[in-house]
Amino acid sequence: MKTKLLLVRHGQTIDNVNQIMQGQTQGQLSEYGMQQAEQLARQMATEQIDAFVSSDLKRAYDTCAIIAKPHQGTIQTTPLLRERDWGDFTGLYIPDLKDKVWPANVETMAHMKDRAQAFMDWLRSRYPGQVVLAVGHGIINKAIQSVYYDKPMHEVPKMTNAEVRILEL
Questions:
Q1: Is-catalytic flag, 10?
Q2: 44: which residues sit within 8 A by CB, 6+ positions away?
Q3: Catalytic residue among 38, 71, 83, 111
Q4: Rounded Cα–Cα distance for residues 154 and 122 (Å)
Q5: Three-state SS for 45?
Q6: What distances in angstroms separate CA 140 from CA 40, 42, 56, 150, one per listed residue?
Q7: What is the pTM of this model?
């Protein structure tokens, strides 16, 4: 029995607009980000969704809560869906990082892919044969797709805020 994953990136945040490296900070949806989530909730309102899963970071959880509301769904959170840990780059203005040497405490791509695989394994075992909507973040969602399609990360197209991609696990 395959698990159908509706993989979603959280709505736009205030830090997205201000080009701040959020990493594993909680983040806050912007007004537009809430509208994006509400639009997606309307689009998904008639879809069969058996379970809702979210990163345990606020920006993803709030997006998931808006989408789950028409379904009266409860949300299971997991740190496996957290965004990449940017270490000492966290909270900095992204354009200023262009030529900077990466600090040693930035989470590696290998670790991201291990988390992505662990998330998919967890999802398959916990929700076999079900439709699961999961809200994550740009880079962890990219890592999930990289592992799923067995492609390098740079070959996976970037997800826009509140975008959905469907994977059959």
A1: yes
A2: 6, 67, 70, 133, 164
A3: 83
A4: 25
A5: coil
A6: 20, 25, 13, 15
A7: 0.96
